[in-house]
Amino acid sequence: MKSRPLILDIKSWTRVSSKELQFFATDEEMFHWLTHDLPSDYAPYSLVASVLVKRQSRVYQEVTSRHNLSTYLDCVADGRQRTGSLWLCSDCLSPDLFSKLQKVPSPKGICSTNGLIMIQPGGRLKEGCGASRVSIVDKVRNSDTGETRVHDNYLAIYKALSRNIQRALVYSTIQRFPDGTEFEDTRLQKMTEAAARAHESGNPYSSRPGRILKTTGQTESRRNKVLGPLSSAREERHNIVSRGVHFGLTDATAKRLLEAHQKGRLSEIQEILQDVEEKWDERYLAESDKSWEILHRCFSDGTLSPEGGDYPLNHCFLGGLQLVHVARDGYVASLKTRDQVKDIAAALAFVDQAWIERRLDELDAEDNLDYAWSWFHRVRKLYMKLAREERAVIFTVNN
User: Fold this and answer.
1) Are residues 251 and 216 in the same domain?
2) How far is CA 80 from CA 23, 85, 128, in A?
3) Of 177, 240, 260, 382, which residue is 20 to 30 A from 120 by alpha carbon distance?
């Protein structure tokens, strides 16, 4: 198979398209996928490891090394100890890569720009092992010449690896945030059976296993022997669709909510919100069904954290003042002030269907485009109206 010339002047090239899959799996599962399930057309494969090595006080150097796939577990252990990155390389597609990496200041940039697949095992967090990621920059463009390069062969490797991983993702996950808020993730960060077993056995992940999404003999056995049969009430709670609604607020209502929050009066907050919902003034509300979940991920850092991503887009849904905690109260209520509404509306004006498509593509969730875009129109229209009328807004999700 003919190889392409490597891109070395990476400052002249920009990312056009990328893909990413996030998931919870054991290191041993990832080792199996890499050593058994990669396309033979592009073999042999190797791993390129890049770690930061301290040379002197506050001075670090990026050092690369090349490894056989059989040493994956050792590479992961080393990378966790010494802040590192791991890349999957096809030796037939990029035969001269490693020799070139020894001569450049930014090996990671070279790997990314030339289409290598980044393997990022879950990091060790306080809550447990974080989500793993596999990602690829599959299309780049030269900003000086306009030349576009599509890494179609590496993309084929990524898709094959991604398909095998996705087949094993059989559990939703429950994400818990520092303020006590919890969300069930059924789309973007799912979990394997082996990871669910590890979590229950005392090797925790940063998210815990939730519902069984795909039933196999192993998952049914774990459900009955480890967790016990789910009660009908628990099944019902897990199967409720959590639909989001934005409500425009009058100055008086926004002031009452802020005062009740400052004084810690949860019952008063709930009464005010109940009153707002019961009025159901369609002139000042926008429903988003369950699209809010995927749209918030697009507008943040790919997670459901209210703090994830950058202001103001991350405030469109979950970001803002958290008045109610779902873990404690079975409800989500996030308030945005009048000034924040103006900032959000201004940012949303630049969001078009192509932008959302790119973000969904990066999150490997492009199948949600039509669904997300159809609901997004309503949310943006409301923000524009509230910005003109200088109103605050509250986003709610009722579980």
Assistant:
1) no
2) 18, 9, 13
3) 177
d(CA 209, CA 204): 10
Phi-psi region of 33 (alpha: psi -120 to 50; beta: other; left: phi over 0): alpha
Shared domain for 201 and 272, answered yes or no, is no
Q: Model pTM greater than 0.85?
A: no
Task: Name 225's Cβ contacts closer than 8 Å, sequence gap at least 6.
Answer: none
Structural contact between residues 121 and 79, judged by C-beta atoms closer than 8 angstroms: yes
Q: Which tokens in the block code for residue 346?
A: 């201004």
pLDDT digits (tens, 9 = 90+) for 210-238: 989 865 544 444 443 333 333 333 333 33
CB atoms within 10 A of CB 30: 22
Cβ neighbour number for residue 207 with a 10 Å cutoff: 29
- Give the pair of three-digit tokens for residue 79: 């990378």
Calpha distance 313→302 (Å, rounded): 12
**Structural domain count, the chain:** 2
Shared domain check, 253 and 391: yes
CATH number at residue 282: 3.40.1760.10
At 53-91, the pLDDT tens digits run: 666 666 666 788 899 999 999 888 876 665 568 999 999
CB-based burial label for 257 (10 Å; 0-12, 13-18, 19+): buried
| Residue ranges making up the domain that contains 21 | 1-237
Edge-to-edge strand ranges of the sheet holding 392-398 = 285-289, 243-249, 392-398, 331-336, 321-324
